[in-house]
Amino acid sequence: MTAETVAEAVPSSSTLSQNKSAAAASAAAAKAASGLPHVQCIARARIPTVQGPDIFLHLYQNDRDNKEHLAIVFGEDIRSRSLFRKHAGETQEARMIRGAYVGKLYPGRTSADVDEKQGLSLQFDEKDGSLVVEPSTTWCEQETLVRIHSECYTGETAWSARCDCGEQFDRAGKLMAVDHEGDIKGGNGHGVIVYLRQEGRGIGLGEKLKAYNLQDLGADTVQANLLLKHPVDARDFSIGRAILIDLGISQVRLLTNNPDKVAQVEQPPFLHCVERVPMVPLSWSGNHSEGIHSKEIDGYLRTKIERMGHLLQQPLTLHTAPTDPKTAAI
Ligand SMILES: [Zn+2]
């Protein structure tokens, strides 16, 4: 990776763009030393949703793999630095089609950089075309609710009750939309779900299906991966960190029960986890109509707590109490 490509992913700010030589050089050097991948957002679009506010779906390319990782963004003013950077000779129409616009698109709009209806306009650095970050138009330096979510086809699409990925995904979106939910402070319309295409804790869908068969044969989720000669957790969150930095997020309120993830989000001096926001399973609410109820999910959550150190405190009530000591050990 060149110093130039690294510098592209460094978050811009008005200070940085106006006084960039020393600050940008040292930031680029620190970033290069960190070994973060280079990410580029190539398109963004507004998606109206069935509940809550519109979201803005960002599609990313990177220099580590050929997968299309995503950022699901709550808040029009959270801006990807790589998407908004001006390309040489680019028309305003081309920028609107890429999604690099301020405010809201409407039929007949001609400028990406100015939304006359909302009275919003963006400024760019004349030399390198980077977005000049101004609080009136662009979210910056604020604590932001974030979920780093790994793709789970079975849990999100095929109604699987083997894991709680689908429920956690839904919960993250709901919390970002609301001001508060009980004691938990929500995102009040701002937040980011980084959606990484690393199925089955990084081992892929085919191997995950084999692991499920091993689980039906008595292994837990950790043992099944080990029996297939995979690491317990093969996920890589470095692309997720690079995406958050590209979106100008620096102070993260991370939605997770996984203490390892808190440590993995840290990317000083650009990214800090300032709070862990727990995700308590809905099935623990006491209302049997809520959440996922299956003997598989009980075992899955038990393994997360006992073998992977997840910070869930409510004791699990198992559907069946194991009597065989060999079974009880898994
Ligand atoms: Zn899952």
From TrEMBL:
Matching Pfam families: GTP_cyclohydro2
Alphabetized UniProt keyword annotations: GTP-binding, Hydrolase, Nucleotide-binding, Riboflavin biosynthesis
Catalytic activity: GTP + 4 H2O = 2,5-diamino-6-hydroxy-4-(5-phosphoribosylamino)-pyrimidine + formate + 2 phosphate + 3 H(+)
E.C. no: 3.5.4.25
Pathway in which the depicted protein is active: Cofactor biosynthesis; riboflavin biosynthesis
Domain GTP cyclohydrolase II: 137-267
Entry keyword annotation includes Cytoplasm: no
Catalytic class of the enzyme: hydrolase
PANTHER family: GTP CYCLOHYDROLASE II-RELATED (PTHR21327), GTP CYCLOHYDROLASE-2 (PTHR21327:SF29)
Family of the protein in this entry: Belongs to the GTP cyclohydrolase II family.
Matching NCBIfam families: PRK00393.1, ribA
Name of the protein in question: GTP cyclohydrolase II
Source species: Kluyveromyces marxianus (Yeast)
